[in-house]
Write a structure and sequence with these properties.
By secondary structure, this protein is mainly beta. Helices cover about 10% and strands about 35% of the residues. It contains 4 helices and 17 strands.
Length: about 280
């Protein structure tokens, strides 16, 4: 997931009621405007270690990126079963999406679909988060009990106060993903310019499960700004090898594998919403 601010001093306190955990009261996050949510220039960094610009060096490339090295709320993480807390008061993730005009762009480090008009929202703890865009990482960035899958999909949302919320969905090889299948012809023909692709319905994004993990993390590319509300769908869905190959073929050299290594948990809680547990549904 990419950049929404270059200003590490832009901090506000956030009540941890997003997680319904009284033992953790406040987290700090940075205000973001809609125009600042994504970086368009991948040239200063890469995913290849040994180049001087790989993930281990991100915090040294730019003074505004120091949190990539020094931060305590970094993403992605390993979702290890022994760390997970099943919280009865977490609520079902509410989606209120609608079809809207969209564009697709090869940003060099990923392929991004951006909605140009109102495409709806998700609701977390009574707060609306407007849908902005989505993109893919291959292989997956988050791991489950140390297992890294073949693809991860990030759906990015922004609240009116500048808080980012991301839904992450992981995939293993198997049957094609229906949402990606509808976009594949556009992805194969994109260049450096943003391309209008007509109406795209985010309601076509399949979750496959109501179970999800929730934690506070960061952007997964520089400047690695912290305070992002992550929701990772527990079910691992399927994607075809051809679909993953198409995404890798169009990005720039050095970004075919565009997954940041997992980061230290630093004592953060990982919460699990499981509607099968008593009290875990709305």
């Amino acid at each position: 997931m990419a950049v929404f601010s270059n200003n590490p001093s832009c901090l506000i306190s956030l009540s941890f009621t997003f997680f319904i955990l009284s033992s953790y009261t406040l987290f700090s996050i940075c205000n973001a405007s809609e125009s600042e949510v994504e970086t368009e220039d991948e040239t200063p960094f890469t995913y290849l270690e040994g180049t001087g610009k790989g993930p281990r060096k991100w915090g040294q490339i730019n003074p505004h990126w120091q949190v990539c090295d020094k931060g305590k709320l970094q993403s992605p993480i390993d979702l290890l079963d022994q760390r997970v807390q099943v919280i009865p008061n977490l609520a079902r993730l509410k989606r209120d999406y609608n079809p809207a005009p969209a564009t697709v762009k090869n940003r060099g480090h990923d392929v991004t679909v951006r909605w140009k008009e109102d495409a709806g929202k998700i609701i977390i703890n009574g707060t609306d988060f407007k849908l902005l865009q989505c993109h893919w990482h291959s292989p997956s960035e988050h791991t489950f009990n140390g297992t890294r899958y073949n693809l991860e999909f990030h759906v990015i949302h922004l609240s009116s106060n500048g808080t980012i919320a991301v839904i992450g969905i992981t995939y293993k090889y198997g049957r094609p993903d229906p949402f990606l299948a509808k976009l594949l012809s556009h992805i194969g023909s994109i260049g450096k310019e943003e391309k209008d692709i007509g109406i795209v319905n985010p309601g076509d994004i399949k979750f496959g499960s109501r179970k999800y993990y929730r934690y506070i993390g960061s952007l997964t590319v520089p400047p690695c700004t912290e305070g992002v509300i992550w929701t990772i769908v527990k079910k691992v869905r399927t994607v075809s090898r051809e679909q993953v190959r198409a995404l890798r073929d169009v990005v720039h050299d050095g970004f075919e594998a565009n997954a940041r290594p997992t980061q230290q948990l630093e004592g953060r809680p990982i919460l699990l919403y499981n509607p099968g547990v008593r009290g875990g549904s709305n």
